[in-house]
Specification:
heterodimer
C-alpha cells in the first residue's frame, strides 16, 4: 500500500508539469487554432530566467549583506518575476512569429513555432554554452516520512502551486471580461472581432498567460530536477502536447486533467511493468484512448470541425 | 522569374562557399590529427576536457618544433570536430576527418555511444583511431584499426561488484541505467553478471532502466527501494548522477550509491552537491594524491584552465602521446596518406609498456590495454580521493 501511495505522490508531481505546459498549448489553440510548438522552449526560457533571478536574489540577500530574507520568499519572487518576463517573451513570439502569418496557410503558421523553438534552443546554447547549470537550492529540502511514504516540502510546494495556478486561470477565464473575450474568440474568431473585440489584443494576452504558466512550470521543474540544459523543454514539450490533444483541443481544464493523467499513466506503467517498457506501454495506452475518444476527453466535435 | 533567380543565386552562393572549403590545398608535410569530441550535447564537459588536453599537448609539440619522424620534424595540426554527443554526428565527424581533412589518426570519440559506431567508420577507411574513454568492448572488437587508452567494461563491472562485496559485505544490489546508451547498458550487464556470480541468482533485486534525457526517476527508484536493495549501482553520466542521487535520497533510499568512470567529471559534484559526498566510483585515475608526471599534468592543466582535469583529459593526453610514439616509430612518412595510416596502425599495435599518466599500457590483439582501475571516494569537501587500486 505504501508502494502505491509513494507512486501516487510521484505521479502527482510529474503530472503537474505536464498539466501546466499542456494548458498553454490548449489556450493558444483555442484562440488561433494552431499549436505553438515553441511552447516547450518557452518553458526552458522560463527556467533559465528563473535561474538568473534566483541567483541574483541569493547574492543580493545573502546573509553577509545583513539583508537576509527567507528562502521561500526568494522563491516566490523568482516565480512571479520569471512569469512576468516570460510572458513578455510570449507576447514577442506572438508579435514576430504568429501575427505576420495570421492569414498565411495553416502549415506555414504551424511551423513558425518549430522554428522559434529552435531559435530559442540554439540562442541559449550560444549565449550560455552547452554546460549544465544547477538551479540554486533556494529552500532546503526537508524530507517527511509518513509510515514509509516519503515526500519533501518541495513536492508539496510544486503540487500546491500548480493547482493554485490552474484554479486562478480557471477563474480568470470564467469570471473576468478578458476571459470572456477569450472564450468568445475561441467560439467564433470571424464574428467576434466584428463585435469590437480585437484579436490583436486577445492573442498576445493568450500567449502571455500560456508563457507565464510555462515559466512557473519551468521553475517548479528546476526545483525538483535542478539540472538545466538548453534542450530540457523538448521532450517535456512534446509529451505535454500529447496531453493537450488528449484533453481535447482547446479545452483548458481538459488539458490540465490530461496532463495529470499522462503523469499517472507513465509512473504507474513503470510501477507494474519493467521500466524499459515504460514509454512504449504508456503511449500505447494513450493511442488506445484516442482510438475510442478521437476528440480527447473534453473536445467538442462540432466546433473543431467548424473551425477547420 | 525573379523567384527562380533568387533560388539559383542562393544555390550557387552556397556551392561557391562549399568549393572554397573543400579546395583548400593540403600541405603534405603537416601531420593532421583529428579530434572527435562531444563539445555540445549531453556531456559538453567531456568534450571540453578533451579539447583542453589536446591543446595543451599541441603546445608541447610546437615548443619542440613538431614530431620527429626519421630525422625530419613535422609540424602538427589538430582538426577538432564536434559530435554533439550523438552517434550519427560522430560518424559524420569521422567521415569528414578522414575524407576531407585527411587526418593521419583520430583521437576520440569519447563516450561509447559515439565511439562504437564511429570506430566502424575509421576501420572501414583503414584510419587508426584511439578512443581515450570508451570502455565498451564493441568499440575495438574485430577492428584492427581501432585502439583505446582505457580499461574495458568487462573488467570494470567485476571491479565494482567485488569492491562492494569486500567493502560493505552486501548481498542485495540494484541497478539503474540508461537503456538507450551503449556505455551504461553494457556496464550494467557486466555488473549484474559479476554480482550474481558472487551472490547467487536473484541477488540483483532490481534492474531498472530509463532513456536518455529522462529526468524523473521516481518510479524506478521507488521500485528499487521496495526491492530492499542495500546498494544502488548507477553507471551514468554526471547530469543524470546528480538527479538520481538527489531523488533517491528524497524517496528514502539510505544505502550507498556506487558509480563508474563516467562519474569522474568535475561537474558531478558541482551539480549534485552534498548528496554525492561519501559515494564511491571506479575510474582511471585519481587526481587527489597523484605523483610524478601525473601530478605535473594535473598542476599544469589546473593552472591553465582553472580546474582539476577529469579522467577523460588525462586519458586523451595519454592517447595523444601513444599516437606520437607510434608515429615516431614508423621511421618515415611516405606522403601517401593511406600507406602512412597503415604504418601508424602497425606501429601502435607493437607498442609495449607505454608509461602514461594513467598507468602502464600494452595493447593486446584487439587493441585494448591491460591496466589497473582505481576506486575513488568523493570526500566531504567534494574532492575525488584515491581509495584503492584494483589490477587485473
Amino acid at each position: 500500500m505504501t508502494y502505491f501511495f509513494q507512486n501516487f505522490i510521484n505521479a502527482l508531481q510529474w503530472g503537474s508539469f505536464y498539466a501546466l505546459i499542456a494548458m498553454g498549448y490548449s489556450m493558444v489553440y483555442g484562440i488561433l487554432m494552431l499549436f505553438n510548438f515553441a511552447h516547450g522552449d518557452v518553458f526552458m526560457a522560463g527556467a533559465y530566467i528563473g535561474l538568473g533571478i534566483a541567483t541574483f536574489l541569493m547574492m543580493l540577500f545573502s546573509t553577509a549583506a545583513g539583508l537576509a530574507i527567507p528562502g521561500w520568499l526568494i522563491l516566490i519572487i523568482t516565480i512571479l518575476a520569471s512569469m512576468m518576463l516570460t510572458s513578455l517573451l510570449g507576447i514577442l513570439i506572438e508579435r514576430i512569429g504568429y501575427r505576420p502569418l495570421r492569414n498565411a496557410p495553416r502549415a506555414s503558421a504551424a511551423i513558425t513555432g518549430l522554428m522559434i523553438g529552435i531559435i530559442l534552443e540554439m540562442g541559449n546554447l550560444i549565449l550560455f554554452g552547452a554546460q549544465r547549470f544547477s538551479f540554486p537550492s533556494v529552500i532546503n529540502t526537508v524530507t517527511y516520512d509518513l509510515g514509509g511514504v516519503f515526500f519533501t516540502n518541495k513536492k508539496i510546494f510544486i503540487v500546491g502551486v500548480a493547482l493554485m495556478l490552474m484554479l486562478s486561470l480557471h477563474l480568470f477565464i470564467k469570471k473576468t471580461k478578458w476571459g470572456m473575450a477569450m472564450r468568445a474568440m475561441s467560439f467564433d474568431f470571424m464574428a467576434v472581432p466584428l463585435m469590437g473585440v480585437s484579436i490583436n489584443r486577445v492573442a498576445p494576452m493568450t500567449f502571455a498567460l500560456g508563457s507565464a504558466l510555462a515559466a512557473a512550470a519551468g521553475i517548479l521543474y528546476s526545483l525538483a530536477y535542478p539540472v538545466l540544459d538548453p534542450l530540457m523543454g523538448v521532450n517535456l514539450g512534446w509529451k505535454a502536447f500529447v496531453a493537450a490533444i488528449l484533453g481535447g483541443r482547446g479545452s483548458i481544464m481538459g488539458a490540465a486533467m490530461a496532463g495529470f493523467l499522462l503523469g499517472f499513466i507513465e509512473i504507474f506503467t513503470a510501477m507494474v511493468f519493467p521500466s524499459t517498457l515504460r514509454d512504449l506501454i504508456a503511449y500505447s495506452i494513450i493511442l488506445v484512448i484516442l482510438t475510442f475518444r478521437p476528440h480527447g476527453f473534453f473536445g467538442q466535435t462540432h466546433s473543431a470541425q467548424l473551425r477547420l | 522569374m525573379k523567384k527562380i533567380l533568387f533560388i539559383i543565386s542562393i544555390i550557387s552562393l552556397s556551392a561557391i562557399a562549399l568549393s572554397i572549403n573543400s579546395c583548400k590545398s593540403r600541405n603534405k608535410d603537416i601531420i593532421r590529427i583529428g579530434i572527435n569530441a562531444p563539445l555540445t550535447g549531453d556531456i559538453p564537459k567531456v568534450g571540453e576536457g578533451t579539447k583542453f588536453a589536446a591543446q595543451m599537448w599541441l603546445e608541447d609539440i610546437k615548443k619542440s618544433g613538431g614530431i620527429e619522424i626519421g630525422g625530419k620534424k613535422y609540424p602538427v595540426e589538430l582538426v577538432i570536430e564536434d559530435n554533439e554527443s550523438k552517434a550519427e554526428s560522430a560518424v559524420k565527424a569521422n567521415t569528414k576527418l578522414i575524407t576531407q581533412d585527411e587526418v593521419l589518426i583520430i583521437i576520440g570519440p569519447q563516450a561509447s555511444k559515439q565511439a562504437v559506431p564511429a570506430g566502424g567508420v575509421a576501420n572501414n577507411y583503414k584510419t587508426p583511431m584511439i578512443t581515450a574513454w570508451s570502455t565498451n568492448p564493441d568499440t575495438t572488437k574485430g577492428r584492427p584499426y581501432v585502439f583505446r587508452a582505457c580499461f574495458l567494461d568487462p573488467f570494470q563491472g567485476p571491479v565494482v561488484a567485488n569492491f562492494i562485496k569486500e567493502e560493505f559485505k552486501f548481498t542485495r544490489a540494484a541497478v539503474l541505467y540508461d537503456v538507450a546508451s551503449d556505455y551504461p547498458k553494457g556496464l550494467a550487464e557486466f555488473f549484474k553478471l559479476a554480482w550474481e556470480k558472487n551472490n547467487g541468482p536473484g541477488s540483483v533485486t532490481a534492474y531498472e532502466s530509463f532513456t536518455t534525457k529522462d529526468t524523473d526517476f521516481s518510479s524506478q527508484l521507488t521500485k528499487i527501494i521496495k526491492s530492499k536493495a542495500q546498494v544502488l549501482f548507477t553507471p551514468q553520466y554526471y547530469n543524470e548522477v546528480a538527479l538520481i542521487v538527489q531523488q533517491s535520497r528524497e524517496l528514502g533510499f539510505k544505502g550507498p550509491i556506487v558509480g563508474s568512470d563516467s562519474w569522474g567529471s568535475a561537474e558531478t559534484v558541482k551539480l549534485c552537491g552534498k548528496a554525492c559526498y561519501g559515494q564511491f566510483f571506479s575510474t582511471h585515475y585519481a587526481a587527489a594524491g597523484a605523483k610524478g608526471e601525473t601530478k605535473e599534468f594535473i598542476d599544469r592543466y589546473n593552472k591553465k584552465y582553472g580546474y582539476i582535469p577529469d579522467d577523460v583529459s588525462a586519458l586523451t593526453w595519454d592517447a595523444l602521446n601513444i599516437a606520437k610514439k607510434a608515429m615516431e616509430s614508423t621511421g618515415k612518412l611516405s606522403g601517401d596518406i593511406k600507406d602512412d595510416r597503415t604504418n601508424v596502425r602497425n606501429a601502435l599495435a607493437k607498442i609495449k609498456n607505454f608509461k602514461g599518466i594513467t598507468g602502464e599500457m600494452t595493447f593486446n590483439d584487439s587493441g585494448d590495454p591491460q591496466k589497473c582501475a582505481v576506486i575513488v571516494k568523493i570526500s566531504n569537501k567534494g574532492e575525488f580521493e584515491f581509495y584503492k587500486s584494483v589490477c587485473p
